């Protein structure tokens, strides 16, 4: 039962995360990422500052121990000199006291020398850590500056993407049907083009019919003139003129009146 609940919890978590990523504003997420990078850089600088501070403190302690070591060396020498002088003057008691003081100072000197050697190792280690911390801060600062510079490019790309998405959405709305009672732009365009094509075809048919009529009229007129000319020639030749009117009547269309043909004149 626990495994089933665990699976459901992981599924719901993944689903919620996926839904959040789909609906989240990339601009806000970008600001969050830059803010987190800046916070991380600040924490890194604080850690580096602590490392450098430890190195500085180690150096100060080493310098103090070196000063103390130098002082103890001087005191030990002075105690030995005073013990020797007291021994030469016959003051054995003072000579013994100065010798005991010199031995005490020598013990302190040995301990301080050990502290100095330990501090030297600590200073070397802390200096290496300090150098690494400084290098890490410098590198992270460079990366942060690159991210900040990249932020401007990403914001520009985001604005371009939003504009393109709006254009795509607008084009999709123009190409798709808006509703049951509102036709799409493509449907209206097809309807207008079909209507224009029908009107154009009708105009071409009408123009063709008129031209045909005009051609018929021109042909009929030419036939009438030809028949009239033939009638004149027949009259001049004294041939049978009765066939001319019949030919003229056949040449004239049914919807036009027959032309008046003048009677042939006798030759002079």
Summarize the structure.
The protein has 268 residues and is mostly helical. Helix content is 86%, strand content 0%. It has two domains: 11-162, Helix Hairpins (Orthogonal Bundle); 196-251.
How would you describe this protein?
The chain has 268 residues and is an all-alpha fold. It folds into 2 domains: 11-162, Helix Hairpins (Orthogonal Bundle); 196-251. The chain has helices at 2-23, 26-88, 92-175, 185-237, 243-251. α4 packs antiparallel against α5 (243-251). The longest helix has 84 residues, at 92-175. The protein is rod-shaped. Mean pLDDT is 77; it is low at 243-256.
Quaternary structure annotation: single chain
CATH fold annotation of the largest domain = Helix Hairpins
**Strands, total number:** 0
Given this structure, which CATH class of the largest domain is correct? Mainly Alpha
Q: Report the helical percentage.
A: over 70%
Q: Give the overall form.
A: rod-shaped
The number of helical segments is 5
Radius of gyration: 60 Å
Distance between the termini: 138 Å
The stretches of 5 or more residues where confidence is low (pLDDT under 50) are 243-256
SSE order? HHHHH
- At CATH level 2, the architecture of the largest domain is Orthogonal Bundle
Structural class: mainly alpha
Write the SSE topology.
Elements: H1 2-23, H2 26-88, H3 92-175, H4 185-237, H5 243-251
What are its keywords?
2 domains, mainly alpha, 268 residues, Helix Hairpins
């Amino acid at each position: 039962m626990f495994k089933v609940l665990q699976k459901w919890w992981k599924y719901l978590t993944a689903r919620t995360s996926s839904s959040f990523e789909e609906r989240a504003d990339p601009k806000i997420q970008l600001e969050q990422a830059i803010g987190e990078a800046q916070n991380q850089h600040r924490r890194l600088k604080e850690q580096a500052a602590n490392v450098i501070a430890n190195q500085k403190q180690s150096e100060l302690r080493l310098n103090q121990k070196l000063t103390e070591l130098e002082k103890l060396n001087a005191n030990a020498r002075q105690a030995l000199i005073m013990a020797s002088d007291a021994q030469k003057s016959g003051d054995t008691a003072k000579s013994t006291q100065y010798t005991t003081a010199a031995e005490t100072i020598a013990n302190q000197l040995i301990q301080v020398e050990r502290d100095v050697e330990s501090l030297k190792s600590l200073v070397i280690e802390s200096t290496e850590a300090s150098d690494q911390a400084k290098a890490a801060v410098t590198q992270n600062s460079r990366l942060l500056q690159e991210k900040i510079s990249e932020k401007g490019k990403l914001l520009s790309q985001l604005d371009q993407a939003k504009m393109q998405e709006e254009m795509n959405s607008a084009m999709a709305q123009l190409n798709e049907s808006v509703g049951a009672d509102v036709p799409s732009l493509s449907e209206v365009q097809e309807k207008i083009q079909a209507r224009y094509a029908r009107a154009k075809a009708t105009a071409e048919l009408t123009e063709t019919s008129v031209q045909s009529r005009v051609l018929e009229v021109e042909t009929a007129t030419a036939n009438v003139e030809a028949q009239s000319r033939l009638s004149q020639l027949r009259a001049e030749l004294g041939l049978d003129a009765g066939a001319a009117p019949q030919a003229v009547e056949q040449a004239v269309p049914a919807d036009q009146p027959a032309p008046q043909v003048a009677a042939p004149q006798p030759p002079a």
